[in-house]
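REQUEST FORM: STRUCTURE PREDICTION
Request ID: SP-0412
Submitted by: Lab K.M.
Chain count: 1
Length (residues): 632
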Amino acid sequence: MSSTIAGGNPTSPPDVAGMVYVTADNTGDYTSLSAAITAEGNNKIYKLGPGDFTLTSQLALTNSNIVIEGSGVDVTRIVFDMGTTGAGFKITGSIGSAFDVTPNVAKHSHTITLASTTGLVAGDWIYLTRDVVVDANTADRYDAEIHKILTVDNSTQITIEDVTYEVYNTADNANLYKITWAKSVAIKNLTFIDNRSSVTAITEQADTLFLFCYGLILENVKFDQMVHACCGVQNCFNSTFNNIGFDGPRQIDEPGGTGIRYGLYLLSASTNFTLNGAWAQRCRHSFTTNTIAGQTYGAGRRRNITINGFVSYNADTANFDTHESDIGITFNGCGAQSAYFGSDTTDSKGFNTRSPTTFNACWVENCQAYGFVIFNNDDSAGTDTSPGGDRTSLVNCRINNVVQAGGVGRGVRIENNRASILIQGCQFYNVPDDVIRIETPGSNFIIANNMFHSCGADLTINGGLIMSPSGTVSDLIIQGNIFGAGTPPANARPLFITTTANRLLFTNNDVNGLTNTSPSIGAASTDCRVENNLGLNPIGKITNPTHSGNVTLGFYGGDVATVSSGKTYKIVGGDMMVTLSSGGGNSISILDSGGSVLISGITPELKSQLILHGYSVKFGSTSGQTLIVCAK
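STATUS: Completed
RESULT:
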């Protein structure tokens, strides 16, 4: 539209088709963004000049195909100065009434049968919900997913373009809702700032909310002094954020507060979200996610989320935090710098993950107590719908200078009941306590090719740079790590399994520089191998190689230096060189892992016999003999 004003003001913006100029100095088409959008509607670019554009009531938009573009961050500001309740700005689509899903829909189904398809057409988008809990600690956070209709086949059946991700049963109150998107909305080059002195309630989940938006773009946008959560993205599809800032959010002003001061808040069934470049300062969580309980459109799990180059400064609980109901999030090159305590926190971590997460080249510097924590809300075992932090990977990450808080300064903590964790190629520097701590039970861990540089300074001989403090850890592979780089710890061991390890491989590591080079492995452990480690293997004479109760012979678990006549001892800890001499009358047999006799009638002594891990040796008379056991 024409932007010239009466009298031909020479400072007027140029006349560009589809461009609407909103200026604070009355040189454009409008001085109010709200008035401009109300009058001009969709398919417009709203160009905001320098200055403050104050909202005295909530600006709630449902528009599509619009661009709101300022003149620069902190040059153009949208200022919230309305009442004490509610979000300041929101752009929302909507959903219609529920369609009953009947009968049940199988996982990976192309078709969905409904009581009626009236009102649905090909090309519609749908929000498919079921009352299946996706958070182990909250009973009414439910599942949902978003799809596009390919065809309406008949009066009761639709075909979707892809497949359903889960089973949708009528017993679980499976429903389908038609989505009306707010499409192709872009906001660029401006600041949102909440100028209210008091806000007592925000029901929209965030001070700036985008709900049921398709193709949402935010670029060069700063959120300043926002309340509760700076920016919420809920049930949005194909969203891209570039160069976003979150500065000093505030909690709701109510008795006791909520403690919530989030930066970016990704919610419900949001799918295909990418962020490229962001920073945040003094949040509770600079980035977090959730499924909302008790809300018609609160259900769902986030899918296909990629966060690139997000740097968080001075969070008070965890710089980055993912909740249980994320299908999978990837962080690339994201960093957590420093920390401060909030009113109800005793540590401030770098990254929390309660869902399967991939961390690539991420870093933590000067955070409190923990660099990374992998867990779920109640430390229960993972399920298909609530996996917790299972299937998480840390690859080529950097964890530096963890600050002790409450006497704890650890690199990575893997909480109880977690499984399928990969930690590979990471650099750990100046982590004062156990660097990787595995709570139990837990299973399926690979810790490989990591560098432990000047770590474990505060540990005793009963502590390990990799530590399992109690219970049983199963299927643990530790290989290719260097434990003594920099200033090695005075007392710590490379590995300390306090109670039990079932199926452990500790191989091809370098323990040079450590005073206590030998891993400590609980006596009840089974099928554990320690071999080919620089600075450790081959291992000389083992002082007490025999466990009389478990009837084992080898590297770990021993409590005596002798064997008993007539007993069969299983070789543990790796391949062992066994010598039994200075006596007579022996009849010694060697058995394979299945118990079959390979060699029998060895007498009168056993001379430097190599016996493979998992094999057994049976002794006859051993009176007055000397036992020597060395590890390969």
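NOTES: Residues 546-631 form one domain.
Reviewed by: T.R.
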